[in-house]
Write a structure and sequence with these properties.
- The chain is about 40% helix and about 10% strand.
- The protein contains six helices and three strands, in the order ααβββαααα.
- A three-stranded antiparallel sheet has the order 1-2-3.
- It is globular, with a radius of gyration of 17 Å.
- The termini are far apart.
- It is α+β, with helices and mostly antiparallel strands.
- The protein has three domains: about 35 residues, no CATH class; about 70 residues, no CATH class; about 35 residues, no CATH class.
- The N terminus is likely disordered.
- A hairpin with an 8-residue loop joins strand 2 and strand 3.
- Helix 4 crosses helix 6.
Length: about 140
């Protein structure tokens, strides 16, 4: 019996991995990288990297709390891009609110730590090679911060 449960769990884990993988295919192809899970992705609406692997500041205009762009901090939490009830921006617990009240909030730019990572880390080498215009923008952003 224990062996069958393990196989069932293995199959469930495999299916969960497959579902997550499908959700990120667009991001993966745009970066020509393979991703496994929610650590990194791309939000085409806000035109920025998302995922729990992306450090950032709370998007509330009066807050500089360090968070990440994972599902724990997305407006209305737990749904990619904010789901049906959220705006897709990222907030600390203090500024999340019971419902989305962020209509006039603009997303904050990437933090210096993330920009430097994309510009220098070996894992982003292929992305840099394939996106010279984006690299140029990031270098200007990094120089101004």
């Amino acid at each position: 019996m224990q062996n069958k449960q393990w196989v069932l769990q293995k199959n469930c884990l495999y299916m969960s991995h497959f579902v997550v993988r499908l959700a990120h295919l667009q991001s993966a192809f745009s970066r020509t990288k393979k991703f496994m899970g929610w650590s990194i992705g791309y939000d085409n609406h806000w035109m920025r990297d998302i995922g729990y692997g992306v450090p950032c500041k709370c998007d509330h205009p009066d807050c500089d709390k360090d968070i990440d762009r994972g599902l724990s901090y997305v407006c209305r939490g737990s749904e990619p891009y904010g789901g049906e009830d959220g705006c897709g921006l990222y907030f600390c617990e203090e500024h999340m609110g019971e419902k989305c009240e962020h209509q006039d909030v603009e997303p904050k730019p990437d933090v210096k730590e993330w920009v430097e990572h994309k510009l220098n880390d070996e894992s982003w080498a292929e992305w840099r090679k394939n996106n010279p215009d984006e690299v140029s923008k990031l270098k200007k952003l990094n120089a101004n911060s």
